Amino acid sequence: MSGSVARGGNGRFAKGQSGNPEGARTRRRGELMNLEEINRTILRVFTSRTQMMIAGKPQDVTLLEANVWGLASGKPSNRLASKDVIELTKDAASFLEELERREKRRERGY
């Protein structure tokens, strides 16, 4: 804070005086994603590869497969999160498949 801005005896700024004479910084809004971009992002993330131990051996699997394995193993940790990952991936794939079907129909003139 600048030393040139005076405060009154009660520690408050004088009426009409700001504690930040340079003003608030300007904020930029992030780009909003449309539904197609969100679904493509979900699929890209959950089809990325990771390592996990299966039957005592390291395996290269997708994040989706890792979540399915986690549910199949019966481990109680993050069961709800694993179900959500699987549901999100399924919904994203269904959305994009429907989008492709509509585009093909439109190209054919239906």
TrEMBL record:
It comes from the Bacteria. Residues 11-67 form the DUF5681 domain. Pfam families: DUF5681. Residues 1-31 are annotated as: Disordered. Residues 1-11 have a biased composition (Gly residues). This is DUF5681 domain-containing protein. It comes from Sphingomonas qomolangmaensis.
